[in-house]
Design brief:
This protein is α/β, with parallel strands linked by helices and 335 residues long. 41% of the residues lie in helices and 18% in strands. It contains 13 helices and twelve strands. It has a six-stranded parallel beta sheet, sandwiched between helices. Strands 7-6-8-9-10-12 form a six-stranded mixed beta sheet, with helices on both faces. Helix 9 links the parallel strand 6 and strand 7. Helix 1 crosses helix 2. It is elongated, with a radius of gyration of 25 Å.
């Protein structure tokens, strides 16, 4: 196997000069660089990427921890993250916690051993806040709060709730059913910012005198529970005239309404929350709150601490929160 020593000998330069050219560090004259590059081509030398990364103390790999990629929201987000990281010459290492019991802890171990440059944490975790701040490595939380010192990127769910409520109030809705995760997530101090859209809708509809019920549909990884809940709404609330839920819930509710001969949107309005491709392929184009996946991905990459920052400096910095606007995309399922 051809190594840097072979390149140095063929180019008539020192080993350190070859190293500077290969790792693109330090100053090398144009003449010296040309000699090294010519020798590399002649010898068909391919730099050892692992060795280069060890030299730079970087792996150019970001770990992405999702609760599941079966859910269209998380598969869409993952695709946009991979696209964004690839544009920055970074690789993505994906973990779906619904499919493995050890995924989260294994990724944290890899991060601590400098086998990854950072982690995007988008899954539910049982670890306390001080666990995450004790890792001393770059982590960005998506749509959840992990603790002081861990940056957060999230959509503006309060804005999403206001947009939904305004649409329902203006269109004359009388009985709205919201579908979401376990209500226990709404407790004070929750780490789930997504509940804010439900709470905002409930508050604004109550102020307008519109009936509103909340139905639990299990965790995001339990797709079957979401589908079953969407179908059961019609039996539990026969006078429902508006349903709001994830793209999965909204799509199934639309199909169930069709089977029951319920006219959408004349008799029933359906609003999806996420705005993935699924919202456009449900039979009718769903009115949806669209989360801005490209913007989320662009703001989501963990940045390594600067060389002048100590681990304790990084941990004690105030937690920045990047809030990404959402948009109401009118479809064929609202009046």
């Amino acid at each position: 196997m051809v190594g840097m020593r072979d390149v140095a000998k063929a180019a008539g330069v020192s080993l350190s000069t070859v190293s500077l050219v290969v790792n693109n560090t330090g100053y090398v004259s144009a003449d010296m660089r040309a000699k090294v590059e010519s020798a590399m081509r002649q010898l068909n030398y391919i730099p050892n990427e692992l060795a280069r990364n060890l030299y730079r103390n970087r792996t150019n790999t970001i770990g992405v921890i999702m609760p599941t990629i079966a859910h269209p929201f998380f598969s869409t987000l993952t695709a946009h993250l991979q696209r964004e990281f690839a544009a920055r010459d970074l690789k993505t290492l994906l973990c779906s916690t619904a499919d493995t019991d050890k995924g989260e802890s294994e990724y944290i171990d890899m991060l601590q051993r400098h086998m990854m440059d950072g982690i995007i944490m988008a899954a539910h975790t049982e670890h306390p806040a001080d666990y995450w701040t004790s890792i001393h490595r770059p982590i960005v939380a998506f749509d959840r709060t992990l603790g002081e010192g861990v940056p957060v990127v999230r959509s503006d769910h309060e804005q999403g709730g206001r947009l939904i409520a305004r649409q329902l109030i203006d269109s004359g809705a009388r009985h709205v059913v919201l579908v979401g995760g376990p209500r226990s997530q709404f407790a004070e101090g929750t780490t789930f910012p997504t509940i804010r859209y439900h709470l905002t809708v409930e508050r604004l509809l109550a102020e307008a005198g519109i009936a509103c019920d909340y139905v639990e549909a299990g965790t995001v990884a339990d797709i079957a529970a979401h589908e079953a809940t969407a179908c059961a709404i019609f039996e539990q609330y026969p006078d429902v005239d508006a349903i709001v839920g994830s793209d999965v819930v909204a799509s199934v509710a639309l199909q169930e309404a069709s089977r029951r001969g319920i006219e959408v949107p004349a008799d029933l309005q359906v609003i999806a929350y996420d705005g993935t491709l699924m919202a456009e392929t449900a039979g009718k184009r769903l009115t949806a709150i669209r989360q801005d996946f490209p913007a989320i991905a662009a703001d989501g990459g963990p940045a390594s601490p600067s060389k002048n920052d100590s681990a304790s400096d990084v941990d004690t910095q105030p937690t920045p929160e990047e809030v990404i606007p959402v948009a109401l995309i009118p479809g064929e399922t609202t009046r």
